[in-house]
Amino acid sequence: MWDYSTCVNTTKLIALDQIIENHAAMEDSAAYLEVVQRQGVIMLDEMKLLFLKREDFSQVKAAVRIMAYWKFKKLLFGEEEYHKDITLDVIDTD
Q1: DSSP state of 11
Q2: pTM as predicted
Q3: What is the pLDDT of residue 43?
């Protein structure tokens, strides 16, 4: 049985996905869309909920934040590593 918070979370996730899809042509969403293709949507739903909670469930603010997160992570860790979980073992000492 679904409770109220599950319904709200599901609705917010759907709205967040729609906002990101509407901005799919933008450069900011490219890194995020690559991660979705590699990892699948289910794994990212938990992460998207964290972004929504951080932005007081504002889908627009969460969409901007999540796209910026993946773009910056790709910049920092490169094409081969950014979609993986980053641990201290992965990071160079340089």
Answers
A1: H
A2: 0.76
A3: 56
